């Protein structure tokens, strides 16, 4: 469901963009609340191959699941964007059931004709690795992926880092990671990024993700990135 709101609530340290009300953002909380064997069904990668419909995601060492982190953070992002007048839609309806495959999420986003697509994830890297990284499709498969998506990734990187969240020290480069293996990014016809907010296997990152205050910090940073990109794009569709 697309949600709109008229009240203005400004995340810390972000000025309210004046031209983003009425824009549309598709929010994808990564993974599913539950899974079965159907997630192994093969779906298109967007580059001629196939991959699993979905994966179960990762978790912190204490068992806090990625899908729960992404869901909670996505709801916070949706609330803040709605308060800025941005219309939103989610890729899954809850954090308890089986959700759509990765290609179905991309198709749903494309059908909405959004101004931006935000996929929220958390990584499961080496314990010594810390920080976020922003994924975008590379090499690009269309002009949107070649231009606006890269601009979106850079704005998000800058806003995440400016919010005090460190860029990854174990993957990508300076908080950015162009890659060809993510179906959602490959199939994107509108500006799309996938943000790995941090490393669930790292003690500092996992402590942030496991706390409500930490998830709010991630959400505020993500909203700054989305709003900054939207403000650079002009009028609502």
Write the layout of secondary structure elements.
Blueprint: E1 24-29, E2 42-44, E3 50-52, H1 66-83, E4 87-90, H2 102-112, E5 116-123, E6 133-137, H3 143-146, H4 148-162, E7 176-179, H5 183-186, E8 192-199, H6 203-210, H7 212-231
Helix pairs in contact: 1-7, 4-7, 6-7
Query: How confident overall, as mean pLDDT?
Result: 93
Structural class: alpha/beta
Distance between the termini: 17 Å
CATH superfamily: Zn-dependent exopeptidases
Helix content: 25-40%
Largest beta sheet, briefly?
A: 6 strands, mixed
Shape, principal axes of CA atoms: globular
Structural summary, described in words:
It contains 7 helices and 8 strands, in the order E-E-E-H-E-H-E-E-H-H-E-H-E-H-H. The protein is an alpha/beta fold and 237 residues long. The strands form 2 sheets. Strands 4-1-5-8-6-7 form a 6-stranded mixed beta sheet, sandwiched between helices. Helix 4 crosses helix 7 (212-231). It is globular and about 45 Å long. The model is unreliable at 1-13 (pLDDT under 50).
Short recap of the structure:
With 237 residues, the chain is an alpha/beta fold. The protein contains seven helices and eight strands, in the order βββαβαββααβαβαα.
Give short descriptive properties of this protein.
alpha/beta, Aminopeptidase, 6-stranded mixed beta sheet, 7 helices, disordered N terminus, signal, N-acetylmuramoyl_amidase_3, hydrolase, N-acetylmuramoyl-L-alanine amidase activity
